[in-house]
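Please fill in the sequence for the structure shown.

STRUCTURE ENCODING:
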């Protein structure tokens, strides 16, 4: 069968299998159509079928390309800015007497994919900081001493509200869950009285090894998360759902590995009171955990305090 016959048979078999069978099984019919192939090829039916077949190939190519881009995820995103974070307190090893070191990571930010969160992060690592309003004063404290302290903190916040922004200076690494997440940037001191940053937006980037993200909304404080695990894991799926991917670690993955390996606070899995005849039950969370939220829980906090000593843009 000639090349033109094969092409026509393939085209006809897609839209009309019965006609393709008749076309191939009748030699006289074949010769008749070949002798008049110009008029046959230019007929409206064949033209429509050709357009239909071409649209299928085009759609297939687009879907394949889109799937490839989605699979690459954050690795293919354009880096618009670079910032650095310098940590203080990470040990060279897990030994208790190991001296702490100063370690730096460089993060490439995806300003095109997450413009608003990237803008906030760039301000947090700047000298001016991120300007945020003071939280409303809580006047419901039962103890007079606590209320006076709260009033003092609130008034001090108001004095610097429009001039001093929130920065990552001396914020801490507050949670490490090995191979799942490293949460960085829990502010303290004078910045505790400020309203949390609001991270907005959504993109289709997924979490892979070394990806940096922020929690969507305003309930994650000012912190960000470094993902030390594998793409497609259950931990990655949780972060894909809750967080916005904003960048990835370009330099200092050895620092990330050491953070990932740091020993952390763990609740006892053994109820010693029950073993000695006491009440049965689980270990209750601390008061700070109950009232302050997950950021103030001791669970999964590094045993050695790790602080952000300096930050900036590159």
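FILLED IN BY: designer on duty
SEQUENCE:
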């Amino acid at each position: 069968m000639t090349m033109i016959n094969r092409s026509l048979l393939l085209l006809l078999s897609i839209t009309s299998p019965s006609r393709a069978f008749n076309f191939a099984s009748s030699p006289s019919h074949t010769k008749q159509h070949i002798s008049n192939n110009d008029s046959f090829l230019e007929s409206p039916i064949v033209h429509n079928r050709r357009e239909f077949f071409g649209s299928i190939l085009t759609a297939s190519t687009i879907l394949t390309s889109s799937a490839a881009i989605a699979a690459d995820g954050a690795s293919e995103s354009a880096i618009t800015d670079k910032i650095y974070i310098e940590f203080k307190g990470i040990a060279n090893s897990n030994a208790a007497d190991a001296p702490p070191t100063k370690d730096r990571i460089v993060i490439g930010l995806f300003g095109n994919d997450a413009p608003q969160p990237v803008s906030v992060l760039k301000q947090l690592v700047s000298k001016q900081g991120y300007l945020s309003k003071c939280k409303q004063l809580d006047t419901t404290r039962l103890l007079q001493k606590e209320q006076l302290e709260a009033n003092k903190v609130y008034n001090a916040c108001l004095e610097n509200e429009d001039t001093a922004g929130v920065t990552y200076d001396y914020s801490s690494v507050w949670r490490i869950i090995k191979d799942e997440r490293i949460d960085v940037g829990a502010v303290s001191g004078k910045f505790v009285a400020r309203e949390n940053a609001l991270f907005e937006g959504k993109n289709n980037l997924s979490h892979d090894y070394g990806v940096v993200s922020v929690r969507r909304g305003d309930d994650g404080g000012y912190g960000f998360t470094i993902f030390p695990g594998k793409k497609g894991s259950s931990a990655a799926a949780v972060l894909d759902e809750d967080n916005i991917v904003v960048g990835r670690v370009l330099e200092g993955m050895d620092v990330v590995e050491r953070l990932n390996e740091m020993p952390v606070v763990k609740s006892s899995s053994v109820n010693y009171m029950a073993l000695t005849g006491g009440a049965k039950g689980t270990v209750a969370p601390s008061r700070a955990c109950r009232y302050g939220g997950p950021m103030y829980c001791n669970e999964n906090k590094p045993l050695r305090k790790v602080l952000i000593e300096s930050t900036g843009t590159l």
